[in-house]
Design brief:
The complex is a heterodimer. Chain A is α/β, with parallel strands linked by helices. Chain A contains 15 helices and 5 strands. Helix content of chain A is 60%, strand content 9%. Chain A starts with 9 loop residues before the first helix and ends with a helix. Chain B has 22 helices and 5 strands. Chain B is α/β, with parallel strands linked by helices. Classes of the chains: A alpha/beta, B alpha/beta.
């Protein structure tokens, strides 16, 4: 595994290594530092908040502080709930890990288990996780990371100190991006940086990736707003937009073809496609807010039917048919 | 009116109204009244649509039993059988004393479906239950499946049902026509009854499918049904389904199609845009299909009684604007399967790429797909800056080619 010094994605290269440098989460950092002064007092932790606000970064920083930059990987197990195939896999890996790491070094109080995207776990899986936390608590501490703490069962919540990560503020994001451009010798205007930050909607990783792409485009020349607009355009969900536009403008067959294209290439679930449609719908300029609200309600209905139904593409087809129908009436009324 | 299935609407609720099979009926009632206490369970067998289920329901109604039904479609394993049947048969029930209900009556319809899976312990479970039961146990099975039930036969009183005689069916049809105010030629009813080959249910379904309010049902009308083909293929099902004139006709057709409902649901969904070019009609038809699919989902692994709502919605979808029907070419197999087949390599490659990104950048595959792939594909297009990045992420040349030519989702 590569160490961070070699990291070439800027997201990773400029990921803060110490709690002090975590962007814009001062209160949380202060509380955590208290635990670091006497690690034995550290309880299980839960980090909740929207994507790209520093939850994983903070968890990794804790690992660095507890075990040192050289050794942290030996005492830290990183798992992703949405990637692991089931709670049994999680249980096995946690069990093996805590057994192996226990006797490794004398002065380390416990091993650290970072479990990302916990809110993707089902209820039964969470119950099993609770049990795992209990049985391994002598040897391990958990840091559970999720977007919404409300999706985590009560017994787990009550075993954790919960920290809520707030949306990064604009100024802090701009500052962080500018810091990166200085270190990478990227010549960029303030307006261009602001443009990126606006587009990223509080997700710092999004912003950094856009910045790195823009820098790669210009290859040393100045990065201006035009290039940023180009990058954002290229990286926006064009096919989802195309599918929406086709459906609203009455071309059901083409909309459905695009839908299958997206599903085929990217393997998105029905819910993921609807989530993106929801996001893109509100960016369409040629329909009124009222019409958007109406279409959004349809999305909501089919979002629910998807959770009940058996065939996601049948539901999506039915959804597109509804959009075509509503789109037709919009055309007639305007 | 067309929304109600006549088979359900006119299903007899008393024993005397169940037509035909007088001998079987008598045997069954005697057994139920405990005049033949030799066997704890009874097995009703015979061809479909002759009144086995109807008789059991009517008898329960008259003798005040609560039916605990166990359908083969969901309960095949020993565990499932025990979960439902044990509580139902072990106790006579407190409310026996407090209400009109005499107690439970366990009814296993299509029992061959349970017993047929010997490897899952279903038969043994049933035999055990029969030995220990304190309540009547009734099983029903089709003729042809009797061989599978051999182990059970010893424990049961066997009652055979015959095909219902044609004149009796004609009388039943006449009665329905009168209640529904349908004028008819006698020959038409005769034709429907003969054609049913003694299956009352199919005769009533045919009658409902053929009759229209305010019009006389003629012998000419019945020519359409032909000899009942109980083995309707996917192609014929689709042909009849999309050309259907009303809900009842669609329901009849679906009832006799032997196409598996999941295949049917998907294939109808795939073909619906070819049936309707008018967006309003398409949206309406798809809405019914969507609801059919919702019920299919709710069935899960055990709520099979919801299956009728799947079919109900399918029938309603078929009956959207029937006048607009024009023949068209069907597509099959399902688009989803074809699409997923041809794109499998793409998804495998994307997953592999996202796993690599995830490991290096501490993120899930999903986040890699959503937040990193869109930009990485653009970065890698810049040939000068790409190589170190490729090396760091450990991407293969094929993965790089794939990424750089990948369209945005």
């Amino acid at each position: 595994m590569a160490t961070n010094e070699e990291a070439l994605m800027w997201v990773e290269k400029y990921r803060p290594k110490t709690l002090e440098t975590v962007v814009n989460q001062h209160d949380i950092v202060e509380s955590l530092k208290a635990f670091m002064r006497n690690p034995k007092t550290m309880p299980h932790l839960m980090f909740a908040g929207i994507p790209g606000t520093g939850k994983t970064t903070t968890a990794l920083c804790i690992a660095h502080e507890l075990f040192g930059m050289q050794n942290w990987r030996n005492f830290t197990l990183e798992l992703n709930a949405s990637d692991e195939r089931g709670i049994d896999t999680v249980r096995e890996r946690v069990k093996d890990f805590s057994r192996y790491s226990r006797g490794a070094f004398g002065d380390v109080p416990f091993a650290l288990i970072i479990l990302d995207e916990c809110d993707q776990m089902t209820g039964p899986a969470q119950t099993a996780l609770r049990r795992i936390m209990e049985t391994s608590s002598r040897t391990s501490r958990f840091i559970l990371i999720c977007n919404q703490s409300s999706k985590i069962i009560e017994p787990i919540q009550s075993r954790c100190a919960i920290f809520r990560f707030s949306r990064l503020d604009r100024a802090a994001m701009i500052e962080h991006l500018k810091d990166i451009t200085k270190k990478e010798n990227v010549n960029i205007s303030t307006e261009a940086v602001e443009r990126i930050v606006d587009y990223a909607e509080g997700d710092l990783r999004h912003a950094i990736n856009a910045l790195q792409t823009a820098a790669a485009y210009t290859d040393g020349a100045a990065v201006d707003e035009k290039i940023i607009a180009q990058v954002i355009g290229e990286a926006s969900p064009k096919q989802v937009q195309l599918m929406l536009n086709k459906a609203i403008n009455g071309d059901f067959m083409e909309a459905r073809r695009v839908m299958y294209d997206i599903i085929g290439t990217y393997g998105f679930t029905g819910a993921e496609i609807i989530r993106q449609m929801q996001k893109e719908l509100f960016k369409i300029s040629y329909i009124s807010p009222e019409q958007k609200a109406e279409l959004s309600n349809i999305l909501g209905e089919y979002d629910y039917r998807l959770t009940q139904g058996a065939n996601s593409d049948l539901q999506l087809s039915a959804l597109l048919a509804q959009f075509t129908k509503v789109g037709k009436s919009l055309g007639e009324s305007s | 009116m067309k929304n109600d299935l006549w088979v359900e609407k006119y299903r007899p609720t008393t024993i005397k109204d169940v037509i035909g099979n007088e001998e079987a009926k008598t045997l069954f009632i005697e057994w139920l009244e405990n005049k033949r206490p030799t066997k704890k369970a009874v097995l009703l067998y015979g061809p479909p649509g002759v009144g086995k289920t109807t008789l059991v329901n009517a008898a329960a109604n008259e003798y005040k039993f609560r039916i605990v039904e166990m359908n083969a479609s969901d309960t095949r394993s020993e565990k499932a059988v025990n979960r439902i049947a044990n509580p139902a048969t072990a106790f006579t029930g407190l409310d026996k004393f407090s209400s009109e209900i005499k107690g439970n009556m366990l009814f296993m319809d299509e029992v061959d479906g349970i017993a047929g899976n010997e490897d899952r312990g279903g038969v043994n479970a049933i035999m055990k239950i029969i030995e220990n039961t304190r309540t009547p146990i009734i099983m029903a099975a089709n003729d042809s499946d009797l061989e599978k039930l051999r182990p059970l036969k010893k424990l049961c009183l066997l009652i055979r049902f015959q095909q219902t005689r044609i004149p009796l069916i004609i009388m039943a049809l006449k009665k329905i026509c009168e209640q529904e105010h349908i004028k008819y030629e006698f020959e038409a009813l005769e034709k429907i009854a003969t054609n049913s080959q003694g299956d009352v249910r199919s005769a009533i379904n045919d009658l409902q499918g053929l009759s229209e309010e305010g019009k006389t049902l003629t012998e000419q009308d019945t020519l359409a049904i032909g000899l009942r083909n109980k083995d309707i293929s996917m192609y014929d099902t689709l042909k009849g389904y999309f050309a259907t004139k009303n809900i009842a006709e669609a329901a009849t057709l679906l009832n006799f199609s032997n196409v598996e409902y999941d295949d049917l649901l998907i294939t109808i969904g795939d073909n619906m845009p070819r049936r309707h070019t008018n967006p309003d009609n398409l949206a309406e038809a798809y809405d019914y299909l969507s609801q059919a699919d919702v019920f299919r989902g709710r069935i899960g692994t055990e709520n099979w009684h919801l299956l009728k709502y799947v079919y109900n919605n399918l029938a309603q979808a078929a009956a959207v604007n029937p006048e607009s029907y024009k023949p068209f070419e069907f597509i099959s197999p399902p688009i989803r399967i074809i699409t997923l087949f041809w794109t499998k390599n793409k998804r495998t490659m994307l997953t592999s790429i996202c796993t690599k990104i995830g490991t290096q950048c501490h993120i899930s595959k999903y986040e890699a797909k959503m937040i990193f792939v869109p930009y990485l594909r653009l970065m890698l297009q810049q040939k000068k800056k790409a190589p170190p990045l490729i090396e760091w992420l450990k991407l293969t040349p094929e993965e790089v080619t794939f990424l750089t030519s990948l369209k945005m989702f």
